[in-house]
Amino acid sequence: MSAPQNMPPPYPAQYPPFPGDPYGQRPTPRPSSSARAIGLALAAALVLVVVAGALAYPMVTRVDGRPSAATAVPSAAARAEGAPSVATGYGLRTSPPSPGDVDNRVVVTLFEDLQCPACKQFEAIFGDAVATLRADPDVIVEYRMISFLDGASSNRYSSRATNASACVAEATATGGDWSTWLRYHTMLYDRQPAEGGAGHDDATLAELALDAGSTDVRDCITANTYGAWVRAGTQDALAGITGTPTVTINGRTVELSTPEALISAVEQAGG
Q1: For residues 104 and 92, what is the distance between their CA atoms, to the nearest angstrom?
Q2: Helix, strand, or coil (residue 246)
Q3: Can you tell me the distance from the alpha carbon of 85 to that of 226, in angstroms, rounded to the nearest whole number?
Q4: Distance between CA atoms of 271 and 267, rounded to whole angstroms?
């Protein structure tokens, strides 16, 4: 079955730069949609498969294996250095914490870059399905907001927007309510700047945060409070993914197609 034809491939289509590098100009490229990547994806049956230039995702066929979803409940020590207190490692888990020592919920992780056009379209197409998963008490939806597209703007918008996102999370989600952060997340995609020019400045990012219902995070944004955490999280993510958006279920990358297929894959993982 073919996937929705309006869905773009993971971004970027050729050579993702490392944080701070010019877009697509790294001497040693990291291919995401080349024939070599496609061959590796077919062999592993794990990675997100894309044909360069095609506007479709292959269907979710399976979640390889059925690893146990049970994991030790993360503690404060699990937070990465310089992270917001609401983060788990490099992720933002928009689900209530587990009351016990072992968490049996399925973990769905979304790797996104706020400058990424394909991520914007992913949110538009899959947003309702992701909201359904967030409402499921047996599922954890984790956002890994990374910033490898600084070179696609003239003012490092990707990194600055990701830091601003972390500022809003810290200011509003300490009580476990992620609704303000989720509104801000949506607003940043709705107002996503075009590539090649300047992204929103710090003042605009702070104003959008207020519009989303956050307290004033201007100082956090201008100080780039979580910049080191953003950079480390991006490098950590790029060691395991080849483009954005990427979705993993219990740590295993799945092939995307329809929102219904995503929900079905999560149900399979939950057993």
Answers
A1: 18
A2: strand
A3: 11
A4: 6
